[in-house]
Each structure stands twice: as C-alpha cells, then as structure tokens.
Amino acid sequence: MIGFTRSVAIELGAHGITVNAICPNHVTTGLGAWQNDFFSKALGLTEDEYLAAMTSRIPLGRPGLPEDIAQACAWLASAQAAYVTGEAMNVSGGEETH
Hints:
Elements: H1 2-13, E1 21-24, H2 30-42, H3 47-56, H4 66-77, E2 88-91
Parallel strand pairs: 1-2
Helix pairs in contact: 2-3
C-alpha cells in the first residue's frame, strides 16, 4: 500500500493532487475490540492483561483513539500539508516506524 501511495503521488503530483497514507496502529473500535478479544484468548491472557502488555510497547502509553486518526487525516487534507505527498504517516503513539 505504501508503494502504491508513492507511485500514485508521483503520477498525480503534476496535477496538484497529493496522495498520502495513514498507517494507524491499534485503535479500539469495533475491529480493535474484536482483536483484543481474539489475541488475548490466543495468548491465554485476560483482555486487561493483553491490553496492558500492548500498551507497554507504545511510547505514548496508550492505544490510539479514532480522533487521533481523524486529526491526522484532517491535517493531510488541510492547506498546511499542501507540500506533503507520497508519505506514509504513522499514527501509532510511536510504536511503529517506517
């Protein structure tokens, strides 16, 4: 997906169109809640134990919130990001880096 984002950014740049990717990490939405349940059971942990272990790996100390992702999207869609294209923005609290 990141390669596709970069290729399309190159193709559309001449038309003034920016193309970027948001790379979120764990966000407890409906899918995130399912993952919490699935992986805690798979690892033989309670959900609280699983969440504590996951949170301990995130430098900012918490899973993501839907608004964290929304704010990154809003910024990329704003005039402030007019010269940003072909990027893969990690919104992961520092856990993921590309």
